[in-house]
Design brief:
The radius of gyration is 16 Å and the shape is globular. The strands form 2 sheets. Strands 1, 2, 3, 4, 5, 6, 9 and 10 form an 8-stranded mixed beta sheet that branches. Strands 7-8 form a two-stranded antiparallel ribbon. The chain is built from 5 helices and 10 strands, in the order H-H-E-E-E-E-H-E-E-E-E-E-E-H-H. It is an alpha+beta fold and 188 residues long. Helix 1 (2-10) packs antiparallel against helix 2 and helix 4 packs antiparallel against helix 5 (171-184). A hairpin with a 4-residue loop joins strand 2 (60-65) and strand 3 (70-72). The longest helix has 15 residues, at 17-31.
């Protein structure tokens, strides 16, 4: 699966300078044979995020993440899974309580290197590290009942695209990630 993922990332067309720069680092690390699929690698992990939108493309689903004290997209670690799209779908379902989430496309929607500051999780210290994150565009029905995942988030809600950007208290994510994800929706 690593070669397949390398091929997908090589053929991915970067949206902006951030993606172009991050794409090079993704490929360097994947081609080096570095173990990115588990958390055993203390410097970098492969993660997958979901930009979950309504079928009419007017709303986006976000969760209030306890660790970051902010509204944010859904997603998480590969934890050994070699299919990042499956990770994005799994994490979106786990974090939102939704049972009907489907990919709009199986293509990578966005890619980004994300820095994670050192923090406590489940009573243990986790060193600062990178998330090599692949984002997928997923779709769900806003009428379906959501629920939070108390060990990770305290709220789950649908927002208009501008509200989603405004709701996040993480400036870099607002400017560099969430606005980009919204802009790209014009292609779908």
């Amino acid at each position: 699966m690593t070669m397949d993922l390398i091929d997908k990332i090589e053929h991915y067309h970067p949206w902006n300078e951030q993606e172009k720069t991050d794409q090079k680092e993704f490929l360097r690390r994947l081609k080096s044979g570095e173990n990115l699929y588990t958390r055993e690698n203390l410097s970098a992990h492969l993660t997958a995020s979901a930009w979950v939108v309504s079928p009419d493309r007017k709303l986006v689903l976000m969760a209030y993440h306890n660790l970051y004290d902010s509204w944010a997209w859904l997603g998480g670690h590969a934890d050994g899974e070699r299919d990042p799209l499956a990770v994005a779908v799994r994490e979106a379902m786990e974090e939102s309580g939704l049972s009907h989430i489907k990919p709009v496309t199986s293509d990578i929607y966005s890619l980004e290197l994300l820095t994670v500051d050192g923090h406590e999780k489940y009573g243990r210290y986790v060193s600062s590290h990178l998330h090599l994150n692949l984002t997928y565009l997923l779709e769900a029905d806003p009428k379906e009942q959501t629920r939070c995942k108390p060990d990770e988030n305290s709220k789950v809600a649908w927002f208009t695209f501008e509200e989603a950007v405004s709701a996040s208290s993480e400036p870099w994510f607002c400017q560099r990630i969430y606005r980009k994800l919204n802009e790209k929706l014009l292609l779908y």
